[in-house]
Structures are given as C-alpha cells and as structure tokens.
Design goal:
By secondary structure, the chain is of the alpha+beta class. The chain has 4 helices and 6 strands; from the N terminus they run αββββββααα. A 6-stranded antiparallel beta barrel has the order 1-4-3-2-5-6. β2 and β3 form a beta hairpin. α1 packs antiparallel against α2, α1 packs across α3 and α2 packs across α3. The chain is elongated, with a radius of gyration of 35 Å.
C-alpha cells in the first residue's frame, strides 16, 4: 500500500464521511472486544493467588515454600492441598496481611482457591487464611488496552486504505460525491408541505379505519354474531 492520497481534493466530504463511519464501526467493535476480553481473562487459569491472612504465628521471608491446607474435615484434620512459594514476607503478629503466592504444585483434585491456612514445610503452622483471590496470567486492564488498541489501529489503516490510497474505492467515492452534487434537493418549504400532507393522510386513514371497525362491531353485535 503506497503512502499518500490518491486524487487529493476530490470527493472530500464523501471520503470524510466514509472514514467517519469506519471509525464509528471500529469504536463499536473495540468497545465490544474490551468487555469480552475481561471475561476471557477472568476465565484463564490462575497463575498466582493473593491471600488475606491473620493470626500469623511465625516470620516467613519471601521465597519460602509453604504447605497449603484446606478446611478441617469431620475429624478436625486439615487436608493438604499442595505447596506454593510465598512471594510476600509474612510478619508475625502484624494483624491482617495480604500475601502473594505462586509456583503452586497442587495435589490432584485440589485448587489453591480452597486454602484455609498455611503451614511451614517442617509442620509448623504459619497463619489462617481469611480470603483468597486468584490472579490471571495478565492484568485484565492491560489485555483490554492491547486488544482495543490493535483494533483501533486496524480500523485506522482500513479507513486510510479505502478512502485515500485504493484507486478503485476512491474513484467510486469521487463518483458518488459528483452524483450527490447533481441531486435536486427539496426546499425547506417542500419538505414541510410534504410532511404535513403525510400527517393529515395518516390521521384520516386511522380515523376511517377506526370508524369502520366500530361500525362492523355494532353490526355483528346487532345480529348476535359477536358477544362483547
């Protein structure tokens, strides 16, 4: 695609309006893709989890491998869900904290989203988990911005290609602009007069049909064919 404008100055308004329509269509598609991308990203496998913890009983530096425990069963024993690496240091007796875990290695049939508490590999209890939030591999806002930007760029390229450089399309738009200038547009007075006539005719037709309907209704009631 050669850069530049084919036959500049000709068919200006038709080319501008065509580019505007492409821009509006592109914006609508980008808005749709924006919302759909967020849905798709939310369904991707979670690569890390943010846990809200409380009652930390020991200090845990970042990079430590911990055991993830589920809720207690009928016998009061918590089942091991798997292991993970704590990326955020855990501070003892610091109240509620948020920690990031990743590199999870889960036992078959378990998910880190069911974690109820953390335990050190040596068996020492670390903290209870009060909330869990899975993190997708990419931030939704970042993915949405990338997808929307790509679509907008594609739309801009298409608008430029079809309205500025593609000879066949540009010649058609120029011819359209020429024919539009030859159109004998109605005056304001003619348009107002035609509109009034259409409104009067519509009212007259509606009134006629209404009277005809009432007449038929009265007639069929009179001969006992219609019961109302």
């Amino acid at each position: 695609m050669a850069l530049g404008i084919y036959k500049p100055g000709q068919g200006y308004w038709v080319r501008v309006m065509t580019a505007t329509l492409i821009a509006l269509a592109t914006t609508a598609v980008a808005a749709w893709a924006w919302s759909q991308t967020a849905t798709v990203v939310s369904q991707l496998p979670k690569t890390s989890f943010t846990l809200g913890i409380r009652n930390a009983t020991t200090e845990v530096p970042g990079g430590t491998t911990v055991t993830l425990l589920g809720t207690a069963g009928p016998e009061g024993k918590q089942q091991e869900l798997g292991t993970a690496i704590v990326r955020t240091p855990i501070t003892k007796a610091a109240g509620d904290q948020r920690v990031l875990i990743d590199s999870t290695e889960m036992n078959k049939g378990f998910d880190a989203g069911a974690t109820a508490s953390l335990r050190a590999v040596n068996g020492e209890k670390i903290a209870e988990v009060s909330e869990r939030r899975g993190n997708p591999p990419v931030e939704p806002l970042v993915a949405q911005s990338i997808v929307a930007t790509i679509l907008i760029v594609i739309g801009a390229i298409l608008a430029y290609y079809f309205t500025a450089t593609r000879p066949k399309t540009v010649d058609f738009l120029i011819a359209t602009d020429y024919e539009m200038k030859r159109v004998n547009w109605s005056t304001r007075r003619e348009i107002v007069g035609s509109t009034v006539i259409v409104i009067i005719a519509s009212i007259a037709l509606a009134t006629t049909l209404f009277v005809f309907d009432l007449t038929l209704q009265w007639f069929f009631k009179t001969i006992d064919v219609l019961q109302i």
